[in-house]
Design a protein that fits this description.
By secondary structure, the protein is an alpha/beta fold. The chain has 2 domains: 227 residues, Spore Coat Polysaccharide Biosynthesis Protein SpsA, Chain A (Alpha-Beta Complex), CATH 3.90.550; 81 residues, no CATH class. 37% of the residues lie in helices and 17% in strands. The strands form 3 sheets. It has a 9-stranded mixed β-sheet, with helices on both faces. The protein has a 3-stranded mixed β-sheet with strand order 5-11-7. Helix 7 packs across helix 9 and helix 8 runs antiparallel to helix 9. The radius of gyration is 20 Å and the shape is globular. The two termini are 17 Å apart.
Length: 344
């Protein structure tokens, strides 16, 4: 099997149906074999029925996996274990995929031994028009809604200190076997918006010397619900990103720029340079507020909220808080248990 597309889902049957229907139009080269693995993570809606109804007529093997341990990371890890492809392609249950997407993502990996993962643009499918404070190309404001576009030219991610979005990436199984799956300690729990499992995964691939390729032709469209286009949602997302990155500081102390966070000067448990950046962000927020620059003000505000989450977590760690961030192995299935169904 050349490629396995893995989709984790929970209670989004309507969106999942559209995603699968768009995947059914996929075109790949002659002789290429692919499959789709849908991991149902405790859905109480018609998710399983939506998948089963499409199995017989689907253009490739469409498999349904039931994962009882709640969370995207355990669901994805189970999908990886079940998948049979030498390339694992990750996307979400709320995307629309053009016919050439899969070929664009996997052909560089099949043709080049020096590339171990690929990723491409993620374009918006707005449920409602975005607010005025997101006008233009708001760099810091793309993350919470999982959008990315690095331009029309291909490049190696490591050379520009970039990573792909988890909603649109293909990874060699051999790389996953080498560095492990997705961390369970960075999962969203309760009302948190932690969700930095994929970013942490790429910290490990970078440390392992892996190289990835940005592929502009590997694009897809991602549903952006109205509920995520509010300042409240953005503040929560950036706060929890700060929490997650503060937890990752001890696990991955070497930054993309080669800076060792274990040895830099600190104040209140934080790298001292972060305090300087925060003072500049506070000044930028004030200046933007005075000038009425909505986008710049929103970006500066989110940087400050990120710092607040980071600071709170580092203070907790300095007081002895325990964080379960041991490396994840794919040697055994998720302790939550799983079962698999496949079409004829």
């Amino acid at each position: 099997m050349d490629a396995s597309i893995v989709i984790a889902t929970c209670n989004r049957a309507g969106l999942l149906g559209r995603t699968l229907d768009s995947l059914a139009t996929t075109r790949v080269g002659d002789g290429r074999r692919w499959e789709v693995v849908v991991v149902d993570n405790n859905s109480s809606d018609e998710t399983s029925d939506i998948v089963r109804a499409r199995m017989a007529a689907f253009p490739c093997s469409l498999r349904l996996v039931m994962e009882r341990k709640q969370g995207k990371s355990p669901a994805l890890n189970t999908g990886i274990l079940v998948a049979t492809g030498r390339l694992i392609v990750f996307t979400d249950d709320d995307v629309l995929i053009p016919p050439e997407w899969l070929a664009a993502g996997i052909e560089p990996l099949l043709a080049r031994s020096d590339i171990e993962y690929t990723g491409g643009p993620v374009r918006p499918l707005w449920e409602v028009d975005p607010p005025s404070w997101m006008a233009g190309d708001p760099g810091l404001l793309r993350g919470p809604i999982a959008l990315v576009d690095y331009g029309p030219e291909s490049f190696v991610f490591e050379e520009r200190l970039r990573i792909p979005m988890g909603v649109n990436m293909a990874v060699r199984r051999s790389l996953i076997d080498r560095v492990g799956g997705f961390h369970l300690g960075l999962e969203r729990r309760g009302n948190s918006l932690m969700g930095q499992g994929q970013a942490e995964f790429f910290c490990r691939t970078r440390a392992a010397g892996a190289r990835g390729l940005y592929v502009p032709e590997m694009w897809l469209s991602h549903h952006v619900p109205a509920s995520r286009l509010t300042r409240e949602y953005y503040r929560r997302w950036w706060f929890w990103k700060g929490v997650a990155r503060a937890q990752m500081q001890d696990l991955h102390p070497i930054t993309e720029l080669g800076l060792d966070l274990r040895t830099v000067p600190k104040f209140l448990g934080m790298p001292r340079f972060m305090w300087g950046s925060t003072l500049r962000d506070a000044g930028a927020w004030l200046a933007a507020a005075i000038r009425g620059e909505e986008v710049r003000r929103a970006e500066a505000e989110m940087a400050l909220v990120y710092f607040a989450g980071y600071l709170r977590t580092r203070r907790r760690i300095s007081r002895g808080a325990h964080l379960d961030l041991d490396p994840v192995s794919l040697a055994e299935p998720s302790p939550g248990g799983s079962s698999v169904e496949a079409g004829p």
